[in-house]
């Protein structure tokens, strides 16, 4: 039971808005101590895991390209481009992006889009410009909501598309775990059952995006 | 064969340039932070476990003491270009896509397990070269602009990697087994719908705590999925697993612990509310979780 104190520290630390890096380090220390580990062993285990998960931080290497292009007017251009499409709306744009993200993730192309290389430079400014036109001027709070919804659409599309692909990590994890329990399944049998949830995600999130247009029109 | 070492070398050199620019600007905290990240990427495998642990402590101290400064807003800008400005952005995904297929058709030149990451890095290098040739900025400009974005993200850039490492400590300490036992103990005995809800909500809740459905899945499978849903009620294991994992993904949409999906975009989009993306996702995630649980209950069991 004592090892759960680390989780309590995480929850409290995030709620009280301490610096999350400190919260994470404190949680690791307390959890390890509760499990009877030596502080130096905890430090070494954390260092080992940190070194092995460096690939998580790789996404940032795209920033020089994005930054350079933004200096030459990338975001402004994205806004101007969608303004030329007469019938485009923020909701329709995001529904199209949701579908694009689900379909490409379903064939294994999870890394072709993401917050750093598509949402910030393209999708968010486009949605913002369209919403601005639909509502005839947005206040700061509404602007934030549209941008947040663009990032949310990227996540929903990715999560509820990727498991349809056979060779994605989570499918392989399920197959491996079931094998340990003596149940033998092919990846295809697992991935086909991701389709009902993918359709549900498209309907639920698509409905919210359709309502966004209705709200903006008022 | 090109693998992760190549990608890490690219990232290491980039962060080393950021550190050097930070020193030139006398922004010591930022220079130190990016310098340590550069060391981790370039020499992490030679530092040893304890050495890497000390490096992490350094990162935490710099971030925790508030030594990271926000970047200056950009005061000048270049003449805007036409729609051709989109082409270099598209190079990155196109190269990642083409490279992933090329790795399958002509194997041998790239580590097949890391094909996408390697091709992403190659795509970035090609896009950068193309943009430099076309726009002809000063050589330092892409790194100046990259650093400006990187400084505005600040310590949040390292949060996903820190949380992944925390997951390793949790696993080492047996947190999963304890939580699984707790959830397994509160299920009403013999009720199919009760067990299905406990499984789905447990997946989501445990994912919210761990920030990762992959960590929650083995625990919930061992505690509820296998003994109750599959063995006792004869549920189809493929459906129980596949939709159970997706119930966990609903939890991922709701937690600041999944920092790379929920906090990093909020920082990148310069939202005032760090939890703004989670707030935008909750009205999708909660009904979707309910639908997933009902799908398991409806599809997985013989009637």
Could you provide a short overview of the structure?
By secondary structure, chain A is mostly helical.
Mind explaining what this structure looks like?
The complex is a heterodimer of chains A (218) and B (303). Chain A has 218 residues and is mainly α. Chain A folds into two domains: 2-52, no CATH class; 60-217, no CATH class. Helices cover 73% and strands 0% of the residues of chain A. Chain A has eleven helices and no strands. The longest helix of chain A has 23 residues, at 140-162. The model of chain A has no long low-confidence stretch (mean pLDDT 89). Chain B is mainly α. Chain B folds into two domains: 4-73 and 82-157, no CATH class; 174-299. Chain B is built from twelve helices and no strands. Chain B has helices at 4-24, 28-64, 86-105, 115-135, 141-153, 159-173, 175-185, 192-210, 213-232, 237-252, 259-268, 276-299. The mean pLDDT of chain B is 89. The chains are: A mainly alpha (218), B mainly alpha (303). At the A-B interface, helix 1, helix 2, helix 3, helix 4 and helix 5 of A face helix 1, helix 2, helix 3, helix 4 and helix 5 of B.
Query: What's the gyration radius of chain B in Å?
Result: 23 Å
Q: Which two chains share the most extensive interface?
A: A-B, 109 and 135 residues
Q: How many angstroms separate the termini of chain A? A: 53 Å
The proportion of residues forming helix of chain B, as a percent range, comes to: over 70%
Q: Give the count of structural domains of chain A.
A: 2
SSE pattern of chain B, N- to C-terminal:
HHHHHHHHHHHH
The count of β-strands of chain B is 0
SS summary, helix count of chain B: 12
